[in-house]
Write a structure and sequence with these properties.
single chain, 6 helices, about 100 residues
Length: about 100
């Protein structure tokens, strides 16, 4: 890949990354679904071509699912576990917050 093509590709990745972060904060399930549509090869690599696990992940733990897709294709190691732990914590916190709102 020549320099100009690589620079253009990098800009596209950064733009998609910024959009993904913004959407994940506002609507994580929508962001995960949109990311699945935009980058299906990455999702296939993260979940070995299965459609069931990503679907369950989007419904139950959307932020964790997005982080898994970001770290899993290269293999999960070292700080990847930290990111996954933070994502699980955010998903559980979000679910607890929503449950507290319903019961109040």
């Amino acid at each position: 890949m020549d320099g100009a093509a690589r620079h253009t590709h990098l800009r596209e990745e950064v733009a998609i990354g910024c959009l993904l972060i913004l959407l994940t904060g506002l609507a994580p399930r929508f962001a995960a679904f949109l990311y699945w549509i935009v980058k299906p090869a990455r999702w296939d690599a993260a979940f070995d071509g299965s459609w069931l696990w990503p679907l369950l992940g989007i419904v139950l733990l959307p932020i964790t699912t997005i982080v898994w897709v970001l770290v899993a294709p290269g293999g999960v190691a070292s700080f990847d576990f930290l990111w996954l732990g933070i994502a699980v914590f955010l998903d559980i916190g979000s679910t607890a917050r929503n449950a507290a709102k319903r019961s109040a």
